[in-house]
Design goal:
This protein is mainly β. The protein has a single domain, classed as Outer membrane phospholipase (ompla), Chain C (Beta Barrel), CATH 2.40.230.20. It is built from three helices and 13 strands. Strands 1, 2, 3, 4, 5, 6, 7, 8, 9, 10, 11, 12 and 13 form a 13-stranded antiparallel beta sheet that branches. A hairpin with a 6-residue loop joins strand 6 and strand 7. The longest helix is centred in the N-terminal third of the chain and has 16 residues. The model has no long low-confidence stretch (mean pLDDT about 90).
Length: about 240
């Protein structure tokens, strides 16, 4: 995964050449059970980064499954994306389009340490939804480097903070559908998270330390027909 670390470094370095609007890095630790592919019980560490710059924004992460074990139990998976913003490139940051916030064009890369590679490109829309931290819809073309077939992969990502009886919570996650691609059938993946903002509750530091549950759900996981998963994962995350 040297290329992944290089990619994350390039995103950070490229963004630093321009004025950063924001930069967020997050470390997550998760543990779950009853997986159908790979180890039945496993731990996962995730390093995630997002940033906004003069003409767009970036997002990337690397997952390390069982990072302290040896192969074949240990493995890595990563995704990297960058977008160009219509509002930013045309200097219309203050423009108001109702529920639509911005139109972007993005490119992406997915890969793991077993040789899987995929490339994505297409339009995206950010939305102005009441009380949401963010809401984004992507309509990407998707090409698996192994099959060289091009399919489609729409996705939606969101983050919604709320509170119950003065307990600060956050509901966030993503939903992705990928069409049939070569020998692989269509598949759905979604990972909603319900988090308790401990940092805000006890230390008056919002969006720093959170804990909760992630539901990892797959339909035809990774394009493998009839491989379905529903796995609750305990998680803790630190944001800086």
């Amino acid at each position: 995964m040297k290329k992944t670390f290089l990619g994350l470094s390039l995103i950070t370095t490229f963004s630093s050449v321009h004025a950063l609007e924001y930069s967020t890095t997050e470390i997550q630790a998760l543990h779950g059970w009853k997986y159908k592919l790979g180890l039945e019980e496993r731990s996962l560490a995730t390093l995630e980064h997002s940033s906004g710059w003069d003409y767009g924004m970036n997002f990337g992460f690397i997952d390390a499954t069982e990072p302290f074990k040896k192969k074949p139990d240990r493995n890595y998976y990563s995704e990297l994306y960058t977008w160009l913003s219509y509002k930013k490139t045309t200097h219309q940051k203050e423009a108001k389009w109702g529920v639509f916030d911005d139109v972007l064009f993005g490119i992406g890369w997915q890969g793991d340490d077993a040789g899987f590679r995929a490339h994505l490109a297409g339009p995206s829309i950010t939305l102005n939804l009441p009380n949401f931290e963010y809401a984004m819809f992507n309509l990407f073309a998707y090409q698996d480097q192994k099959n060289y077939d091009v399919t489609y992969s729409p996705s939606f990502a969101w983050s919604y903070p709320f509170s119950i009886s003065n307990v600060p919570l956050k509901f966030r996650g993503f939903f992705t559908f990928t069409g049939k691609n070569g020998d692989y059938t269509w598949n759905i993946s979604t990972q909603p998270q319900l988090l308790w903002d401990i940092g805000k509750q006890f230390f008056h530091k919002e969006n720093t330390l959170m804990t909760g549950v992630e539901l990892q759900m797959y339909r035809n996981k990774y394009g493998n027909k009839d491989v379905h998963e529903f796995n609750p994962q305990l998680m803790v995350t630190y944001v800086f």
